[in-house]
Specification:
alpha+beta, 4 domains, 5-stranded antiparallel beta sheet, coiled coil, Cas12f1-like TNB domain-containing protein, DNA-binding
């Protein structure tokens, strides 16, 4: 059965929290000790990776902690996964060591200190990637190469020399919070470190008069008590499972080994959650020969994503046809909130650094000159702890917003793909994508920072597993040239700040408006719109080549196989299903996404009533149900 593993965090009841924390505290120290002991033998985990990770650890581990066979297996499995990931990263480091030269560092000048040269780093990694591809090597670790190079440059900026060994680059990766997997145990029913059972019940929903099923979880842990003696605890109280989990269980999802981990609340309180892992059935994708339409989306300069859909022509040599009007997901108001949150984090860091400096100076004076600590020393420490706590709260809020936006954008892409009967989604390859430069003003600098952080990676991660469940293919394309190529005539084009005549006197690379200077064409429009059409055209070229030769091949905008697209007005209608409900009221002249009023809005030339339906979660549920 084709399946996808999904994880659902379940907070444990208060009665079992203390017991679970003792278990995590005991395993936390054991896992870190294993990682430290086997860190010098990291190369042993880079070769054969067949089978569970705990078996590799067991071969090379000398000491035992006496926690019991299955508990030790769980600890070995957790440590082995860390060592395997670090072994892969060490291989990448050894590959990029020849690139570590002073050319990656921009020297200090009168205004700015020494810093990393992001353009040189991208060029070096791109050249290395081409070399490895010519030699037949795997080049999927491109982004990891860039991250490792940047980390090595950070070491140079801090110490003055590049690291020559992986140990100089990466300290021992010990966990700061407790986390353990139960993959080394014998399952929910016969486990020797945990026991769990899930029970289903039928009930009648009074609102809809439908018969439904809910599910509950019971958990039992083997953990040390207050005297550090390992013993079985009592069964927990009933833990109701979320509705989405019940739905997947009804579809035939099977449970996998869960993970127990510690999280810290905004007030610093330690909590334990159980990551319930389900293997969910997924739909099979149709044959590529049967596909005709491609959804292309571009990471916008002014909006988060821009979506366009092209259709492969029936006659060879004809250009692909545009089947949709562009749809923009505008996150401008949310970007403002995130930018203000970033500035608040920078302010808090500056305040904390000031008190850290005072504390360090006072400690040095007390140690070297035997000067007593000032009377405000305790207050300084309290302030630094408060600033650290507030910084953590801000980062948590920032990450939660990014994750929610990633889910929203992925849902919108899947919704549009299903509405237009499209089973392939193409987007830019993040491994070669990096926004360089400080931007223009505060908004430009934040936009560049946002583009280079986890928003894009999180969206791709969410989109891939959701498309896998829905039977939709995802494909990455080479982004070079997509934002500076006319989608109608395929000629190079320049971008400007706006379509106004005053702003079209000087071309700028980050301009939001693209204008084709080909006299026979004259196309002009939003840069993100043009890029989404070009990305979809790259997908059409891939689809054409596969239908003709049966081979997978990627293309660039300079390839002759990539054809410009034509717009078919009568085919650009929004294919909405009969919903049976009225559209939600529109606030003002903008159509905001449901639940994100005044923060995220949809923009397109479709009627406002169509946008109002598109923004509802009920439409997405109906479309997914009928797909």
């Amino acid at each position: 059965m084709k399946a996808q593993s999904l994880s659902f965090p379940i907070r444990l009841p208060e009665a079992i929290q203390a017991e679970a924390l003792r278990l995590l505290d005991a395993s936390h120290g054991a896992i870190n000790a294993i990682v430290c002991e086997l860190w010098p033998q990291l190369d042993l985990f880079a070769a054969d990776r067949r089978g569970p990770a705990w078996k590799q650890v067991e071969k090379h581990l000398i000491t035992r902690n006496g926690h019991g066979s299955r508990q030790q297996r769980n600890e070995w499995e957790s440590a082995g996964r860390i060592l395997r990931a670090q072994a892969t990263r060490k291989q990448i480091f050894e590959t990029v060591v020849p690139l570590l030269t002073d050319a990656l560092i921009r020297p200090a000048d009168e205004k700015r200190p020494a810093r990393k040269d992001h353009r040189a780093i991208s060029d070096q990694v791109r050249a290395l990637r081409t070399q490895l591809r010519d030699e037949g090597e795997d080049v999927d670790a491109f982004m990891a190469m860039t991250n490792v190079l940047e980390q090595a440059c950070n070491v140079f900026l801090r110490t003055g020399t590049f690291p020559q060994t992986y140990s100089e680059l990466q300290p021992v990766p010990v966990h700061s919070a407790g986390q353990i997997t139960f993959a080394g145990d014998d399952g929910m029913l016969k486990g020797q470190t945990y026991r769990a059972r899930i029970e289903h019940r039928l009930f009648c929903d009074l609102a809809s008069h439908e018969e439904r099923t809910n599910a509950s979880l019971w958990l039992r842990l083997k953990a040390p008590d207050e005297q550090h003696k390992w013993a079985w605890g009592a069964w927990s109280v009933e833990i109701p499972l979320p509705e989405v989990v019940c739905g997947y269980l009804d579809q035939g999802a099977t449970t996998q080994a869960p993970t127990l981990r510690e999280v810290r609340g905004d007030d610093g309180q330690r909590l334990v959650v159980l990551d319930l892992i389900l293997e969910v059935p997924a739909k099979y994708v149709s044959d590529l020969v049967q596909e005709k339409r491609i959804l292309g989306f571009d990471w916008g300069v002014r909006s988060l994503i821009t979506v366009s859909i092209l259709e492969k022509p029936d006659v060879d040599g004809e250009p692909p046809r545009q089947m949709s009007r562009p749809v923009f997901l505008d996150t401008g108001a949310l970007d403002g909130k995130q930018a203000r949150l970033r500035r608040e984090i920078d302010r808090l860091k500056s305040c904390k650094q000031r008190y850290d400096t005072l504390i360090e100076q006072a400690q040095q004076a007390s140690k070297k000159q035997r000067i007593p600590l000032p009377p405000h020393f305790a207050e300084w420490q309290t302030r630094t702890e408060g600033y650290e706590k507030r910084i953590g709260q801000c980062w948590d809020m920032y990450a939660r917003r990014n994750q929610e936006v990633a889910h929203l954008a992925a849902n919108l892409l899947i919704l549009l793909a299903l509405l237009f009967d499209c089973r392939i989604i193409c987007g830019e390859n993040l491994t070669t994508l990096k926004t360089i430069g400080r931007g223009r003003g505060v908004r430009g600098r934040f936009r560049n920072w946002r583009n280079n952080t986890t928003v894009r990676g999180e969206l791709w991660r969410v989109l891939k597993y959701k498309c896998y469940l829905a039977g939709i293919r995802t494909r990455t394309v080479e982004p070079r040239g997509t934002t500076h190529t006319c989608p109608r005539c395929h000629e190079p084009a320049r971008t400007f700040a706006s379509p106004a005549s005053a702003d079209r006197r000087k071309a700028i690379d980050w301009g939001a408006w693209l204008c084709c200077e080909n006299p026979a064409c004259g196309w002009n429009g939003a840069r993100d719109y043009a890029a989404s059409l070009n990305i979809a055209a790259l997908g059409i070229a891939f689809l054409r080549t596969y239908c003709e030769t049966g081979t997978y091949r990627g293309f660039r905008m300079t390839s002759q196989e990539v054809k410009p697209c034509s717009y078919i007005g009568q085919g650009a209608t929004q294919l909405l299903l009969s919903q049976g409900f009225t559209t939600r009221p529109i606030k003002g002249k903008h159509v905001y996404y449901a639940g994100w009023s005044y923060s995220i809005r949809l923009c397109t030339s479709h009627p406002a009533t169509t946008l109002a339906i598109l923004s509802t979660s009920q439409l997405r549920k109906n479309v997914l149900r009928s797909a």
